[in-house]
Amino acid sequence: MSFILVAVFTSVFMIIIGRFMYIQFTGEVQAVDLLDYAEKFRQTDSVIEAERGDILGRTGMVLAGNRMSYSLYAVLDEEYTGNSPTPLHVTDLHQTADKLAPILDMDQSNLLNILQDGKNNDKFQVEFGRFGNDLTEEQKKEIEDLDLPGLYFDERLKRYYPNGPFASRVIGFMQDNEDGQLVGAYGVEEEYEEQLKGENGFVSYERDKYGYKLLNTDEQVNPPLDGHDVYLTIDQKIQTFLEDAMTTVEEEYNPSKMIGIVMNPQTGAVLAMSNRPTFDPNTRENMQNWYNDAISFSFEPGSTMKIFTLAAAIEEGVYNGSETFQSGRYRINENYRYIHDHNGGEGWGEITYEEGVLHSSNVAMAKLLWENLGPDKYLEYLHAFDFNEATGIDLNGEQVGSILYNYPMEQITTSFGQGSTFTPIQIMKAASALANDGKMVKPYVTSRIVNPNNQEIVFEKEEPEYVGQPISADTGKQLKDLLGKTVTSDIGTAQRFQLDNFSTFGKTGTAEIPNPDGGGYLDGAENYTYSFMGMAPKEDPQLAMYIAVKQPEIDYSFNGSKTTSYIYKTVMENSLHYLDVEPDQESKQDIDSVKLENINEQSTDGVVNRLKQDGFNVTVIGNGNRIVDSIPKEGDMVLPNKHIILQTDGQPTMPDLTDWTLREVLSLVELLDLEIDFVGNGFVTNQNIAPQTEVSEKSHLIVELKSKQKQHDEAMEEQMKSQEDESKEDEKEE
Question: Which positions fall inside the PASTA domain (predicted)?
């Protein structure tokens, strides 16, 4: 019996030994190559994320870029340390919680609970929710400087919009799609998703049981291809002029909506575009709608449409400016209601058609359409001006208005901008015919696209795209002269839009707003959309601008143009000077202006004392003994109380920028050749470079701006919070 047992066990043992030897020599189990299996088990691929292309402005300013974002996690498993001479896991939970909590802005007890719970449940690692996500480079460095074991970071690129609300509805933003991938979801980010996103690479390596890379293992790296950089036509300074002016009007008149567009009418390049309400693409808080109203909001434009009624009448030879008509009210026969002029139908008696244009007479337009042009011919011109189709601007979300033209009254009211609806960008495109000898240009916001991997220009807009010629060059010239009189004439409705140094022409609009409850229009001076479509200089327009302000808080309708004229004059005047366009008329302010003389290479103290005595606000950069540069420049004409920035021959230092406007900050940046990012609108409240700190061309200035109203509101909130805290303390003492 013993012999049998020995024989059985010996046989089994030999079979096992044989099997092991077979596996040892062949490396296979059930036809599975164990070496290959082990390599596949240890082998892992890791994605190397491509860097999304930047979105840049006309002057190279980064409008949308990337920055590294970090997520913190803590390894708790002691086995991870292994044979390492220093611990690789968290060794002291209390110390880690105490030191980490302030940096994460997290309650120490909550942080300790996360660590303790992970330890008690034998978790390999724990994370810290929203407190540990989206950490900045500065926070990461602070944590690393704590020199605490067991703390590690995952990193990823995050889209960053350094200027906050600046042109946000043009630039757009990104968000997760249905597959959880971060993609462009609005504006340029969406329009050029394929060009911006790039192509991810990967790295292949062997890992340990925890998923971490083995030491001295071979790597296979396939590098990523970064996304293309998209350069826009948006100009930093002109956009800033527009944003600042619109913010001023927003704070003073509290309109429900505002739209502003600045365009080169000879090329179609959009130099600035802004809307109110706006939003910060970094947070998207208080984003009230998903529309870029400049290209998506179609509405009854009011009298700006008279530009195109006049263009059609002049082109057809049926406009006679010296011919007279009876103003006030008009109807085609007794079966139709009256059309009234905007002064309650009172009119101005029997006047010429030119006077009718200057008074912005609805009756004049109605008679031109019905009696001179004819509705069918006018409709041909509406189509020739492309009011029946989208402009094709390279932005997602463009909408098309509706030509309401089925019945006689609809045809008549369309002539003065009522009934039919159009978008601001449609009006801009149609009006460009006045600047191009009757030819329209297609508006666009992208000037070129560059591949950063090899600096190849993959797209560049070199020539304007003409998209029709609805009128002749001669008609365009006559129309410019006529619309110029609306600005310069004593009876013109656009007198408030006269510029200081440049001739200009354009047309005001005061559009009624349909009653949302149905039937008719809203009443009251505050229930209009006030607008202006204008260009300058008159003979050779370099800039075109459209402004619309809906429902500002005003008492009388004639004050509506205060809102639009402030924006137009401020932006147009400053932008033309910035572009070095030669003034074509003497400024009314030239009488009060003085010429900056004897500044460069002069004594710092002497120049400062003289300028202050003349009433100027002076800021000195550096502690040198003589002046080497300034803004405004020596020889410029400047108004009293102007802020003058003087640069000395000493080491430049950063001034206190508190309460500076963005325009003043940009002048400083131009003078010192600094890089700049800014957040917000209004006046500077914070700066990253402390006053009196030395700066160089490599310095990167970041400023935060807030409106005076916002500063006041925040101060009141802080005061109320302080009072509440004091009350709570008093209650505790009682």
Answer: 650-707
User: What are the tens digits of pLDDT across the range 438-496?
Assistant: 999 999 999 999 999 899 999 999 899 999 999 999 999 999 999 999 999 999 999 99
Q: What is the dihedral of CA 230, 232, 237, 241, to 10 degrees?
A: -130
State residue 733's pLDDT score: 56
Looking up tokens 């030819």 gives 439
Spatial contact of 125 and 32, defined as CB atoms under 8 Å apart: no
Q: Name the residue among 262, 267, 289, 266 with its Cα closest to residue 278.
A: 289
Residues 568 and 604 in one domain: no
| Domain identity same for 603 and 703 | yes
Distance between CA atoms of residues 508 and 115, nearest Å: 66
Q: How many domains does the chain have?
A: 4
The arithmetic mean of pLDDT across residues 119-144, rounded, is 88
Q: Is 303 a catalytic residue?
A: yes
On average, the pLDDT of the chain sits at 87
Range of 151's domain?
Answer: 47-207+225-232
Token reading at 655: 């001034």
Q: What angle, 0 to 180 degrees and rounded to 10, lies between the N-to-C axes of helices 93-104 and 137-145?
A: 150
Q: Report DSSP letters for 78-120, one per residue.
A: GGGTTT-SS--S---HHHHHHHHHHHHT--HHHHHHHHHHHHH
Residue 335 lies in a domain: yes
Interval 375-394: pLDDT, tens: 999 999 999 999 999 999 99
Look at strands 229-232 and 55-56 and give their pairing.
Answer: parallel
Same domain, 64 and 164: yes
- The residue assigned the tokens 């302010």 is 589
Residue 366 sits in the same domain as residue 480: yes
Put residue 119 in one of left, alpha, beta given phi > 0 → left and psi -120 to 50 → alpha: alpha
Segment 553-566, tens digit of pLDDT: 988 777 888 999 99
Strand 505-512's sheet: what is its strand order? 270-276, 257-263, 543-550, 528-536, 505-512
CA atoms within 13 A on the CB side of 531: 32
H/E/C letters for each residue in 563-586? HHHHHHHHHHHHHHHHCCCCCCCC
- The answer to whether 422 touches 401, Cβ cutoff 8 Å, is yes
* 363 and 381, same domain (yes or no): yes
Which of 138-142, 309-313, 698-702 has maximum average pLDDT? 309-313
- Of 307, 323, 301, give the one whose Cα is nearest residue 367: 323
Tallying the residues shown for the chain, one arrives at 734
- Is there a contact between 372 and 419 (Cβ–Cβ < 8 Å)? no
Burial of 129 (0-12, 13-18, 19+ CB in 10 A): exposed
Torsion of CA 363, 369, 371, 372, to 10 degrees: 120
pLDDT digit string, tens, across residues 340-364: 998 889 999 999 999 999 999 999 9
How far does Cα 6 stand from its chain's mean position?
A: 88
3 state SS of 380:
helix
Q: What are phi and psi of 243, to 5 degrees?
A: -60, -45
Reported in sequence order, the residue ranges of 314-404 that DSSP labels E, i.e. its strands, are: 324-326, 329-330, 339-340, 350-352
Q: How far is CA 318 from CA 323, 370, 389, in A?
A: 11, 11, 27
* CA atoms within 13 A of residue 164's CA, in its CB half-sphere: 18
* Of 303, 327, 360, 565, catalytic: 303
